[in-house]
């Protein structure tokens, strides 16, 4: 069993788009068959996105390190449930990462503060090949729809989705009762849904 | 507002991330058997997914992959072992244990990168041939090799701390902590390690085996003689889960 895992490929192997959607789908299907080599490749192709997601919510590197491990264990275990007609592979993985990070955050008695963040010590990579090729129509469409929302509602949606803010945190930040924030969020979400045409 | 609307908004807020812990737990449970909710969640995931493009890629520290592979292997080995011994699958226990680590870290109120020390207590899934009373915790700093191992015999309430890569630090002491919900939200000191990094073997004598079994342990680096505040103050040793020997001497 000691040879069960292989070393990951070199970190900076820049040959053809490591994270192309098709390749990720292919890797996920191999991971579903418990292919450990594919798992290592999938990790290399996706970890920067998922770690960026988790760290942005949790703010603390060590915490994010823990959660990202859990995320990849989940990906290993659930790869067989990925349905390519429902979502892209990266969306499916980001969803797992966001859920894990937000669940962890909600369990913490106190929210980590920004000062704990070591984000500034991290060299941000340039947008990945994935990002560059996928600033596509969907993205534009959602962005356009967000732009139609009032400024504060846009901020709320982004703070919640990207930073993991709860209703209560939004309420305190925007100095509004929680129920008002809930109403605003629901209106904003309905407006987005209408704008996106579904 | 109709029930349908309510459900759609519940799904939307779940995906957006604004629900509190109880609400999220409820959604996690409900979606298992509520196909409409599950579908709504999927739709909202697709709608909002493009927002993730605004997230900057960040490369984590090195060597997380080997740790992930170890955990997967541990889970799978344990699952195999359990099939043979007819015990409950350990997969289920590994995850909650791991979650407790994050909780422990958060509960100390310290910046994890700077000040939290964690350990995982691995509950050995006992196979018939092994004692149910022996437990092992591994204390690991960053991604390096284990710093300490702690073995506990529940029956005799005896502990043994063994430094692995850890060495005595000049003008600093290592301190062992225990955390359990029954003991309150803050970690409690078990004791300060001696200069030779040992600890009184009976230091856990006042704790019930049941509590010990579900507790989390941590080791912090403190000023000489231990933490002046009664809470961990020092820099981090980081915990990861490792399987213990019982199911046939597996090693990672």
Description of the molecule:
The complex is a heterodimer of chains A (198) and B (252). With 198 residues, chain A is mostly helical. Chain A folds into 2 domains: 1-110, RNA polymerase sigma factor, region 2, helix turn helix motif (Rna Polymerase Sigma Factor, Chain: A), CATH 1.10.1740; 134-198, Winged helix-like DNA-binding domain superfamily/Winged helix DNA-binding domain (Arc Repressor Mutant, subunit A), CATH 1.10.10. Helix content of chain A is 65%, strand content 0%. Chain A is built from 9 helices and no strands. Chain A has helices at 21-32, 36-58, 61-78, 89-107, 129-134, 137-148, 151-163, 167-173, 178-195. Chain A is globular. The relative contact order of chain A is 0.10. Chain B is α+β, with helices and mostly antiparallel strands and 252 residues long. Chain B folds into 2 domains: 3-54, no CATH class; 64-222, no CATH class. Chain B contains 7 helices and 7 strands, in the order ααααααββββββαβ. Chain B has a 4-stranded antiparallel beta sheet. A 3-stranded antiparallel beta sheet of chain B has the order 6-5-7. The chains are: A mainly alpha (198), B alpha+beta (252).
Topology diagram in text:
The complex is a heterodimer of chains A (198) and B (252).
Chain A: H1 21-32, H2 36-58, H3 61-78, H4 89-107, H5 129-134, H6 137-148, H7 151-163, H8 167-173, H9 178-195
Helix pairs in contact in A: 1-2, 2-3, 2-4, 3-4, 7-9, 8-9
Chain B: H1 3-16, H2 21-33, H3 35-48, H4 64-85, H5 91-107, H6 112-115, E1 120-122, E2 134-140, E3 146-153, E4 158-163, E5 173-179, E6 188-192, H7 209-213, E7 216-222
Antiparallel strand pairs in B: 1-2, 2-3, 3-4, 5-6, 5-7
């Amino acid at each position: 069993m000691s040879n069960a895992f292989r070393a990951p490929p070199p970190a900076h192997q820049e040959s053809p788009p490591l994270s192309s959607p098709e390749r990720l789908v292919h890797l996920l299907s191999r991971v579903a068959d418990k292919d450990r080599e594919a798992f290592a490749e999938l990790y290399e192709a996706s970890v920067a996105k998922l770690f960026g997601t988790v760290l942005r919510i949790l703010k603390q590197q060590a915490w994010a390190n823990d959660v990202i491990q859990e995320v990849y264990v989940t990906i290993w275990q659930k790869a067989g449930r990925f349905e390519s007609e429902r979502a892209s592979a990266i969306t499916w993985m980001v969803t797992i990462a966001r859920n894990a990070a937000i669940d962890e955050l909600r369990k913490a008695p106190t929210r980590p503060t920004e000062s704990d963040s070591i984000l500034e010590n991290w060299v941000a990579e340039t947008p990945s090949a994935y990002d560059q090729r996928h600033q596509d129509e969907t993205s534009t469409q959602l962005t356009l729809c967000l732009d139609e929302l009032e400024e504060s509602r846009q901020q709320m949606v982004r703070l919640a989705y990207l930073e993991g803010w709860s209703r209560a945190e939004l309420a305190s930040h925007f100095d509004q009762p929680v129920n008002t924030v809930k109403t605003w969020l629901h209106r904003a979400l309905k407006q987005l849904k209408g704008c996106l045409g579904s | 507002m109709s029930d349908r609307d309510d459900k759609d908004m519940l799904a939307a807020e779940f995906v957006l991330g604004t629900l509190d812990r109880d609400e999220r737990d409820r959604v996690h449970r409900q979606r298992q058997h509520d196909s409409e909710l599950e579908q709504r969640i999927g739709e909202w995931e697709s709608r909002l997914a493009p927002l993730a493009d605004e997230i900057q890629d960040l490369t984590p520290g090195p060597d997380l992959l080997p740790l992930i592979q170890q955990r997967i292997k541990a889970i799978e080995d344990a699952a195999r072992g359990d099939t043979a011994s007819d015990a409950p699958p350990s997969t289920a226990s590994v995850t909650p244990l791991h979650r407790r680590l994050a909780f422990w870290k958060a509960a100390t109120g310290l910046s994890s990168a700077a000040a939290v020390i964690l350990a995982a207590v691995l509950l050995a899934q006992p196979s018939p041939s092994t004692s149910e009373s022996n437990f092992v915790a591994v204390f690991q700093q960053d991604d390096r090799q284990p710093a300490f191992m702690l073995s506990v015999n529940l029956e005799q309430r005896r502990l043994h701390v063994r430094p692995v890569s850890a060495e005595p630090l000049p003008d600093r002491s290592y301190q062992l902590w225990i955390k359990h919900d029954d003991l309150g939200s803050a970690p409690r000191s078990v004791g300060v390690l001696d200069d030779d990094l040992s600890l009184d073997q009976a230091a856990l004598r006042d704790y019930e085996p049941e509590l010990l079994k579900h507790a989390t342990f941590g080791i912090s680096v403190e000023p000489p003689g231990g933490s002046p505040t009664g809470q961990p103050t020092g820099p981090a040793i980081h915990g990861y889960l490792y399987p213990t020997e019982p199911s046939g001497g597996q090693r990672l």
